[in-house]
# Entry
Amino acid sequence: MATKQRPTRKAAKAAPRSKGKKPSTSSKGDTRVTAKRLEDYLRVHAQHMLDDPNITSVGVGYKAVPGKNRVLAIQFTVADDVVPQALGAPQIPQSIKVGGVDVPTEVTKRSFRPAYLRRDAKVKDVRRARADTLQPGMSVGGVFSGGGSIGCFVRDRQTGRLVILSNWHVLHGPAGSLGNDVVQPGKKDDDRVAHNRIGELLRSHLGAAGDCAIASVGGRGISNVPVELVSVTIDAIGRPELGDRVVKSGRTTGVTYGLVTRVGVNTRIPYGGGITEVIGGFEVGPDPQHPAPENEISRPGDSGSAWLAVDQKGNPTGVMLGLHFAGDQDGTVSEIALACYAESVMNKLEIEPLDTVQPQKLGDDDSLRAGFDRGFLPFAVDVAGFTPTRKTDLAKLDGREEVPYCHFSVWLSKKRKYPLCVAWNIDGAAFVKLPRKSFRTERRGTLENHQLTDAIYKFNPFDKGHIARRADVCWGSKDEAELGNFDSFYFTNIAPQHESFNQSGNTDFDTEGGVWGRLENTIFDSEAPHDLKVSLLGGPVFGPDDPTFEQGGESCRIPKSFWKVVCFVDDADNKEKVFGFYLTQAELIEDLVGPEGIDLSEWVWARITLTDLEAETGVRFAQAMHQREVTFVAPQGLATGLRLKPIHSRVNYFRS
# Structure
């Protein structure tokens, strides 16, 4: 979704200016040389200047000159003292001619490093802990990076979705790639990656425009109020000027203040893995009016923090000027921080600030769509993978085959246009009774192209069969239950099922219903449902001889069979148990043209081993599930699993 980019807000009023004489613009007082002109000059020449391995950065700042006001200068930082000329190393000249004017230079001993996290946290606080509501200044990281800070939440101009903004080296890193998981907190603060996943890496950049990346976010609440800056909401961007006062909220040093001391800074940064890049931005030094503890305005783990403008009264504002990406080495005389320009970062990544968060309709907000919880039970319940044929057929959202919803996840077949696999969780202690919703098409990403429509279900015995039953996912908080109910009606969770196979029946009139619906009821209406937590996986079996059905200008292949795996801890014996089931509607389809804490004993005729189920579906199950599978022996003469005959003629045998 294309959105109109709001004009950049100037930050010139963000900090008070010095009274008295206007600073001269060069050592000769020639007003033709301005900070902007020197920035333009360095944009062309900085890379050549940084070819000298001893020079770590070059930028524009003020130089104190005895007997004069401060003057604009081209400032260099070097890793070591200037090497004697006799050794053959190039020397930095006293001045550089820019537009016919001699501009003085200044040299400071200083070296830089990315401010990502290199060591374990000694003390865990709110910034480093797993949070239900994410805020700027909290720990975050990619699964292949050290970690850093959440900068802020912005809008992706390509999709209109809310995303997280931080650094390349925080979310991506030398070993990472697009589509990798992003976790909060970062791995250095909590290594439970699966438990802490919040999204995936969408886009990143490392170069002149900045050290920056964005990631999707879901499953948690979101606030654009930085930690400890309660009166601020990040909602605009501006461009810093020399002398501006700024403030940031970071994972390690918390809230610290600073002054913009250099602009147009180009810094060569080694990122490891053989990657060294020159990053453009500006420099921040300590603010004497707000000294930081130990004079440290940034430390490892602060990377990704948003530097915000401070107004003339000294109050933080919601105007973001830069994205913190590096600081000087510990133990150096001076204390500085480096930031990319917010405007450059947002243009490069095609994002924009959230000026206001508009009211959202149900289904618009992804923050509660954490998907299937693999850690819901004491043992791992997971889709371990797919056969190559099945994997290449899966549709993707944001680069991932797993499509997350509230309390469930879907793996969607592009060819069949309905799910190959759905995984969901039931919390029996938190059920909420809600009315049914209308079926709808999922329009995120390119998923709309891989779904059946209403046309295939009209004027025939086919039902829109839920794989994850809607009542199963109506639990949790009011918002969760409503979103779970809403999400269950997307066509991505639906497959064509014969009405005599799908419907659960009506106990008031003693109608039996179909076996799929009855199996759902057996799980849902178990002896003590409110004491149970259950994880389930299910879907259709893609058989090679599934018939093709055409109607309303649309065609699809109707699955003859469906499968379901039920995982729970049995209250009766406190054992962890896994059951696999295989049900067929083959005879019903043919008729068209011319079928424990949870008591599953009556379903022995529908049982199948997980190994056989993997062979049939192409879905691979976690080893922990295999280890807890409950073995079974079929009654003599009873066909089971893959040998199952038409089922509706056999049901009463088990109900007598």
In short: Residues 35-49 form the longest helix (15 residues). The radius of gyration is 31 Å. DSSP finds twelve helices and 34 strands in the chain.
